[in-house]
Amino acid sequence: MSTKKVEQKIETFIEGALDNPLFKTLPIKVEDIAKSMGIKVLAYGFDDDISGVLVINNEGATIGYNQTESRVRKRFTIAHELGHYVLHREESDVFMDKQYKALFRSPGFTYTEESQKLEQEANKFAACILMPESLLNKEIEKMEFDLHSEDDIKHLAKIFDVSATSMSFRLSNLGFKFF
């Protein structure tokens, strides 16, 4: 799928979702959004190298997330798997999110160029859902935000219930300049 088509699908999803009360308050209730779409969301005792999985079958879709990971990682995983559902469900019926470190611990495991692209698209979707640009701008306007302040980035991350790293990437991808 082209980058433009991915961006259009994300925009269409967010535009439709903005009327949903789950998108009106922060942090975004990503698990509730998935459930409102009829997707089961369940905690699993995965190995450390697996963050999440999306399985689509005749009974519907299920997102499984690693119950041992941090709350912000679980939220990102659910949003990521929801991204696979919205963007890629025609392409496969199983998606597994293996952490980057798994590449070094799993002999012979490598992502193909196509699977890397799908993962990047799902990551973009997750960032857009968890940190919608319009809500992010509103929060930034409320504070004397300093991009050079680690504390300000952490404060925003806390409001959106994401990691400071995710917030930094999102701000950068939205064109905020750190230097």
TrEMBL record:
Transmembrane segments: none annotated. It comes from the Bacteria. Residues 34-172 form the IrrE N-terminal-like domain. PANTHER family: ANTITOXIN HIGA1 (PTHR43236), BLL0069 PROTEIN (PTHR43236:SF2). This is IrrE N-terminal-like domain-containing protein.
